[in-house]
From TrEMBL:
Keyword Coiled coil: yes
Domain of life: Eukaryota
UniProt-recorded name of the protein: FSD2 protein
PROSITE patterns in the cross-refs: B302_SPRY, FN3
Keyword match Ribonucleoprotein: no
Fibronectin type-III domain: residues covered: 377-473, 474-567
Length: 751
C-alpha cells in the first residue's frame, strides 16, 4: 500500500511509470532490455531511497504514525537479518542490490490485512527488480512472464519465502489501540487505512483499564453472591443438623412406643391363646363324658338284647310266659325303653370366634407422635453493638433434646413507673432461635421472654432479659459552636429521653480537591454534650457526633463545617438586655428605643438590667483571638471583653471585670474612651472607625483595639486575665452593631 501522494512524486515516475499502454505488445527483447536498464539504475539506489524515505516520513508525521513507523523499522531490521539468513543462495546477489528500495518501501506500507500485505510485498519485489523501467507492466500475467524470463532461480521458493516473511512480520507487529466493534487489539495504522477504518476504537491502555474495572465490578458481585450463598449454606447446615437431631429423637420415641405396642400385643396373644386352650379342654372333656355314656348305653342295650333273644327262643310256652312277665325282667326292659337317649353332641367342634382387643395397642400407636412438652428456653443477654436505633436482634437456646415446632417471643417496653405492668405486650411466632425486631424506639429498654411449643403443649417462659436499642443521632448546636485557628468547642444535645453512656466525635479533614467523607480522627468516651477539639490552622473540617450505649452506636448526626481561619463565637441571648434585639443572622444586635430602660422591665437572672448590653460566648482557647465590629458613625456604643461574673446592673468598663472601648458624641466632637474600672486614658482619634478590630492575646495579657479600615492601632490594655473572658457589646443610643467572626488575624495587628 502506498499513499496517494506518492503517485504524484518524482520517485513515483521512477518506480511506477505511467505509460501503461502497449505493455502487452512489447517483444521479449524489449522486456529484457528494460530489465537490463533497470539493473543499471539499481546500482545507485541510495539517492532514490533517501528521497522516498523522506517523503514517507513527512506523511507519517502528518498522520501521527511516527511511533508506528519506528516500531515497524525496528521490526523491519529484524526481518532483514532473517532475509540475509534465509535468502536462497541463487538470489543473494540480487537481494543485496534490492535492499535499499525494499527497506524504503516496507517502512511506508505497514498494513495488517494479510491480503494487502502480501500484495504490497509483491510490489516491493517488483520495484526492486525493475525500478527504472521506461514502461509500466500491464497486468499480473505479463509480470509473471517477466519474472520467469529474467531467470530468477527458485521462483516458487521465493514466493513461499515472501509469504513466510509477511506472516512473521504480522505476528511481531505490536497492537496499540483496541477496536471496540471487533473486540480485538489493532494497530493505529489499521484504523486510518485498514479494515477498521469506520470502527470505533480506544486506546489500548484505556480499554484494558475499562475491562479491568468491569472485571472488578463482576468480582465484587461474585463476592457478594458468595457471601450470600455461604450464609444460605450455613443456614442449611443448621437446618440439616436440626433435622438429624429431630430424626434421632423421633426414631428413639418410635422405638419405645413400638416396643410397648409389641409387648401389649404379645400379652394379648398369650391371653387369647390360653383362653383358646381352656375352651379346647372343656370341649374334649364334654365329648369324652358323652362318649363314655354312649358306651354304657350300648352295653345295656346289648345285655337286654341278649336276654330278650334267649327268651324269644324259649320253646316251652309256659316257661316263656313265666320268664316274660316277672316284674323284674319286664320292668327293666320297659324302663330302659322309656329312657330317652340323648343323641345330640354335648359340644360343637367349632371354637368360639375370638377377637383380640387392640384398642390399647391403637392408643399406644397413636401416642407415638405424642412427645412431651419442651423445657423452658434460655434467652441470651444482649451482645454489645448488636442493635440499631430502631431494631434489636434477640437470640436464645434450648439446652435439651426436646422437639420444638416453633417459639413464641414476647416483649414489651420497660417503664420504671408504677404502671409499667400496663404496657402493651407483643407476641411473635418464630421458627428459629433468633429474631430481629424492627420499628422500635431509639435508646429504649425492652423486656423479652420466649417459650417453646410443640404438639404436646407450651413450655414455661424463659427468664426475662432486658435489651436496649441504640440511641438517636445527637443534634449539634450550630449557634453554640466556638472555634479558633487551632481548636474548636462543639456542643450538642441528645434527642433521647433516657441517658446515654458516652459520645463519639468524628472528624473529617476536607481539601479543595476532594471532599471525601472518610474519618481522619475519632474522639471516644466523651461523657458530656460538649468537647474541646484541637485542630490545625487554616483547615476545613466536617464534624459529626455519635451517641453510644450498650446496644451500640447511633447514626451520625447532621455534620457541621468548621474553618480554622479565625475565632468564632456566638451571642449569649440569656445575657441580653430586654431592649436589645438579635437579628436573624445571630451576629447583629439592634436597639430601637431607650426611654426609661430601667422602668417596668422583666428581670432575668443573667441578663443586663441597666446597660443595654449582651455578652458573647466564652472564649476558652489560649492564644490570640481576633474579631471585628461594624459600627455607624452616629451610634454610641461600647465593645470589649468581660468576665463571666461582671455585674449585670452596671455599665461595661465601669468595674474591674470588664474592658471596653466607648464611643459617645459630644457637641464638639466624637469622643472615644477606653474604660476599665471607670478610668480611661486621654486619647484623641481623628478618624472615626467604622470597622473596629479587637485582638485578645491571652498569652501576652493584651487587649488591643484597631481601626481596621486603615490598619490603625487605637489602644491596648495590658492586663493579666485570671479567667477566660466573654466578648461584650452595648448600645447607648438606638442603632445597630454587626459582629464579624472567623476572621484571620491581620498581620498589621502585631505590635
Amino acid at each position: 500500500f502506498y499513499h496517494m501522494d506518492l503517485y504524484g512524486s518524482k520517485e513515483r515516475f521512477d518506480i511506477f511509470p505511467e505509460e501503461l499502454s502497449g505493455r502487452g505488445d512489447r517483444s521479449l527483447e524489449d522486456t529484457r532490455r528494460e530489465s537490463a536498464l533497470s539493473s543499471e539504475k539499481v546500482q545507485h539506489p541510495q539517492e532514490v531511497g533517501y528521497d522516498l524515505e523522506k517523503e514517507v516520513a513527512e506523511l507519517a508525521k502528518m498522520y501521527g504514525l511516527d511511533e508506528d513507523r519506528e516500531k515497524e523499522l525496528e521490526l523491519l531490521g529484524g526481518h532483514m537479518e532473517k532475509v540475509e539468513s534465509r535468502w536462497p543462495p541463487a538470489c543473494t546477489e540480487k537481494a543485496g542490490s534490492q535492499g535499499s528500495i525494499y527497506s524504503t518501501s516496507k517502512s511506508s506500507s505497514s498494513v495488517k490485512d494479510p491480503s494487502q500485505s502480501t500484495k504490497q510485498q509483491g510490489f516491493s519485489d517488483e520495484a526492486s527488480q525493475g525500478e527504472n523501467q521506461s514502461k509500466p507492466r500491464a497486468d499480473d500475467e505479463a509480470e509473471s512472464n517477466i519474472w520467469s524470463r529474467e531467470g530468477l532461480s527458485s521462483g516458487g521458493t521465493s514466493d513461499e519465502w515472501n509469504s513466510q516473511v509477511v506472516s512473521e512480520e504480522e505476528e511481531e507487529e505490536a497492537a496499540d489501540v483496541f477496536c471496540s466493534t471487533c473486540k480485538i487489539p489493532i494497530r493505529a495504522f489499521d484504523k486510518l487505512f485498514g479494515e477498521h477504518k469506520d470502527h470505533e476504537v480506544a486506546q489500548l491502555s484505556n480499554a484494558v483499564e475499562s475491562e479491568k474495572e468491569e472485571i472488578h465490578k463482576n468480582m465484587c458481585k461474585l463476592e457478594e453472591q458468595i457471601a450470600q450463598m455461604e450464609n444460605v449454606a450455613s443456614h442449611l447446615e443448621e437446618i440439616f443438623i436440626t433435622v438429624e437431631e429431630n430424626f434421632g429423637r423421633q426414631e428413639q420415641n418410635f422405638e419405645v412406643h413400638y416396643n410397648d405396642a409389641m409387648q401389649v400385643l404379645a400379652q394379648k396373644y398369650e391371653e387369647q391363646l390360653e383362653a383358646l386352650g381352656e375352651e379346647k379342654r372343656q370341649k374334649l372333656e364334654a365329648l369324652y363324658e358323652q362318649l363314655v355314656s354312649c358306651g354304657k348305653h350300648l352295653d345295656t342295650c346289648k345285655e337286654l338284647t341278649d336276654e330278650t333273644q334267649e327268651l324269644f327262643l324259649e320253646n316251652d310256652k309256659a316257661e316263656f310266659m313265666k320268664t316274660l312277665f316277672p316284674p323284674p325282667n319286664n320292668y327293666r326292659l320297659e324302663e330302659f325303653l322309656k329312657r330317652e337317649v340323648d343323641l345330640e353332641l354335648s359340644t360343637l367342634p367349632d371354637f368360639e370366634e375370638r377377637v383380640i382387643d387392640v384398642s390399647e395397642v391403637e392408643q399406644l400407636m397413636n401416642s407415638i407422635n405424642d412427645i412431651p412438652a419442651p423445657c423452658a428456653p434460655v434467652i441470651n443477654p444482649q451482645a454489645p453493638n448488636a442493635a440499631t436505633g430502631t431494631s434489636l436482634r434477640i437470640c436464645w437456646g434450648l439446652f435439651s433434646d426436646d422437639t420444638v415446632e416453633y417459639y413464641q417471643l414476647c416483649y414489651k417496653p420497660v417503664n420504671n413507673e408504677s404502671h409499667s405492668d400496663g404496657q402493651a405486650e407483643h407476641t411473635l411466632k418464630v421458627k428459629e432461635t433468633y429474631y430481629t425486631i424492627t420499628d422500635l424506639l431509639p435508646n429504649t429498654q425492652y423486656e423479652f421472654w420466649v417459650s417453646a411449643l410443640n404438639a404436646s403443649g407450651i413450655s414455661p417462659p424463659s427468664e426475662r432479659a432486658v435489651y436496649v436499642t441504640a440511641p438517636s443521632p445527637p443534634t449539634i448546636k450550630n449557634k453554640r459552636i466556638q472555634s479558633c485557628e487551632n481548636a474548636a468547642l462543639v456542643c450538642w444535645e441528645s434527642r433521647d429521653i433516657n441517658p446515654v453512656d458516652s459520645y463519639t466525635v468524628e472528624l473529617s479533614k476536607l481539601t479543595d480537591e476532594e471532599n471525601n467523607d472518610f474519618v481522619t480522627e475519632s474522639i471516644v468516651g466523651i461523657p458530656n454534650c460538649e468537647v474541646l477539639i484541637h485542630l490545625q490552622p487554616t483547615q476545613k473540617y466536617r464534624i459529626c457526633v455519635r451517641a453510644q450505649n450498650l446496644g451500640g452506636s447511633s447514626e451520625r448526626s447532621e455534620p457541621v463545617l468548621i474553618h480554622t481561619t479565625g475565632t468564632c463565637f456566638y451571642l449569649n441571648e440569656d445575657t441580653a438586655h430586654p431592649l436589645l434585639a438579635i437579628l436573624d443572622d445571630g451576629f447583629t444586635i439592634s436597639c430601637d428605643e431607650l426611654e426609661n430602660p430601667e422602668c417596668d422591665l422583666p428581670v432575668y437572672d443573667n441578663s443586663f438590667t441597666r446597660c443595654i448590653a449582651i455578652l458573647g460566648s466564652l472564649i476558652p482557647f489560649p492564644g490570640k483571638h481576633y474579631w471585628e465590629v461594624e459600627v455607624e458613625e452616629d451610634t454610641e456604643y461600647r465593645t470589649g471583653v468581660a468576665f463571666e461574673n461582671t455585674p449585670r446592673h452596671g455599665h461595661l468598663g465601669a468595674n474591674n471585670s470588664s474592658w471596653c472601648m466607648r464611643h459617645i458624641i459630644t457637641p464638639s466632637r466624637h469622643k472615644y474612651e477606653f474604660l476599665h474600672s471607670g478610668m480611661t486614658p486621654d486619647i484623641r482619634i481623628t478618624i472615626p472607625p467604622r470597622r473596629i478590630g479587637i485582638l485578645l492575646d491571652y498569652e501576652n495579657c493584651r487587649l488591643s483595639f484597631f481601626n481596621a479600615d486603615i490598619a490603625q492601632h487605637l489602644h491596648t490594655f495590658n492586663s493579666h486575665f485570671q479567667h477566660y473572658v466573654h466578648p461584650c457589646f452595648a448600645l447607648e443610643t438606638p442603632g445597630i452593631l454587626r459582629i464579624n467572626t472567623g476572621i484571620t488575624t491581620p498581620p498589621w495587628t502585631a505590635l
